[in-house]
């Protein structure tokens, strides 16, 4: 269950209305890298690991719930930045905050221009936050990423936190309001914290590479195809050993000739690796059995009933006590 506490997690403040920045901040309210996206992504992902990975389920639900808290901070900040807009739409008083803010023909024309770019925000919403990005595109569920595999989902979440962190970092460049920057810095910092939490959870799962169950084909897992002309560069991505599987990188300097010589790579041979097709199939079966056993053990019905929570245990204990 959810329990709403009226106080914000971080006390959001603004020094003055700023319609332009309010619209920019919508990017983190209803945009593809925003707080609602993060909250829903982690919330949905959590269902798949409730029984098999209860600790990670708890973490995902905690972070998802915190992201809803951050959505509230962003929404509250947008609303404060829109001070005067809602009232102006209802009462065109000469001395309203919005009238003062739009003092002068240039400011009013600029406001009209912005309204034409995003009419829902300035006209239809009535001066309240909308579930859109900064240019009016509505939030949609296609933003949510989840593969039903915990190691894959955690990697997706690390990427999501990275993107969100960068959006906050960029937003801070477009406001001079120190109070708003204070809130944005808090939100940006929490993205960094969540990044570390997801990384720690991923490191805690053994094995966690590659994502999913199936191992990679040893003929191609350590090949680096030099697909461009000009100066070539070396780095840990194409020389030495690969970081995860410790295979020797093999650079293919002439991809076209190599593909032709190997019958479209069908005749490719594995080099620089100890893995074979036989070892790969063995590892596939081993990891598949391990993951299946974890899920089956965690999701077996108890007393012929599958239950998400453990209320029936409390009822059973109470019943046994009353029968004594």
Sheet with the most strands? Answer: 2 strands, parallel
Estimate the mean pLDDT confidence.
87
Can you tell me the overall shape? flat
- Strand adjacency order, main sheet: 1-2
Structural class: mainly alpha
Q: What share of residues is helical?
A: 40-55%
Let me know the number of strands: 2
The helix count comes to 13
How are helices and strands ordered from N to C? Answer: HHHHHHHHHHEEHHH
Low-confidence stretches: 92-97
If you had to describe this structure to a student in words, what would you say it looks like?
With 324 residues, this protein is mainly alpha-helical. Helices cover 53% and strands 2% of the residues. It contains 13 helices and 2 strands, in the order ααααααααααββααα. Strands 1-2 form a two-stranded parallel sheet. The radius of gyration is 27 Å and the shape is flat.
List the helices and strands and how they pair.
Blueprint: H1 19-25, H2 27-30, H3 35-47, H4 54-81, H5 85-90, H6 97-101, H7 105-117, H8 119-124, H9 150-171, H10 178-203, E1 223-225, E2 250-252, H11 255-261, H12 277-299, H13 311-323
In short:
The protein is mainly alpha-helical and 324 residues long.
Observed structural traits:
53% helix, mainly alpha
